[in-house]
Amino acid sequence: MGGEERMNVFRVAVLASGSGSNLQAIIDKLHGRPAGRDLGRPEPGRTDARQADAVGKDVGPTIEVALVVSDVPDALALERARRAQIPRAVFPFKDYGDREEHDLAMAEAICAAGVDLVVLAGYMRLLSPVFVQAFPWRVINLHPALLPAFPGTNSIADAFEYGVKVTGVTVHFVDEGLDTGPVIAQEPIRVEVEDTVDSLARKIHAAEHRLLPAVIRLLARGRVRAPLLGSRVVRVDWDGEDIWIV
Ligand code: GRF
Questions:
Q1: In this structure, which residue's CA is closest to atom 3 in ligand 1?
Q2: Alpha-carbon span 118 to 120, nearest angstrom
Q3: Does position 149 have pLDDT exceeding 70, yes or no?
Q4: Could you tell me which of 66, 62, 61 has the C-alpha nearest to residue 81?
Q5: Considering the entire predicted model, what is its pTM?
Q6: Which of 102, 143, 172, 209 is catalytic?
């Protein structure tokens, strides 16, 4: 890849209301790093010599967490951003007349930061249509179950108590519904006989910390195609991301 492409930066805003362990995974795995490595896959028009020369080199833009946004002033996620010297913005819900006013203020701050992608990583409020429409196909959410099963805020326990034998993690585009947007990627997790809600939650969180950064990398490299009109099927070219994915 030429120097010009490496100069590119893919800017991400992360919205989080809580502990921010997923934000931490994004910071540790992606912040300030290139979105991919050349895996040596032959490309049309590339000679063997040029192919060999390119293998192992950085490809795609550098990913930068440009802004961390929270609705909770003392969220640990904000402290994680502070430690990583990432700009923060706080929008306490009580400071605004209604959800739309609140979300418009957030959207303005995110627009001003010039981001390419908005990641909901434990952001615990439903976003109003005005926010979603401001960033078409540029808002993704992480959910701790295999959607469309177990939407909502208590999914890990809901799945466990239902007695499912497989659950997992979903990353999806955000639409105006609650956990209803088109699925980008899922990682399944088996529920073992000896599991408890807590042990299952630990497995789910470990999977989240793998899947979400992998999807952000793919988005940064243009390997995720939004659905065509009338469809909800997202096409993803995994290109060697080394995690087990369905
Ligand atoms: C994650 O389980 C995510 O799936 C859900 O909220 C949780 C956030 O965890 N939407 P953390 O704040 O990233 O630790």
A1: 122
A2: 7
A3: yes
A4: 66
A5: 0.91
A6: 143
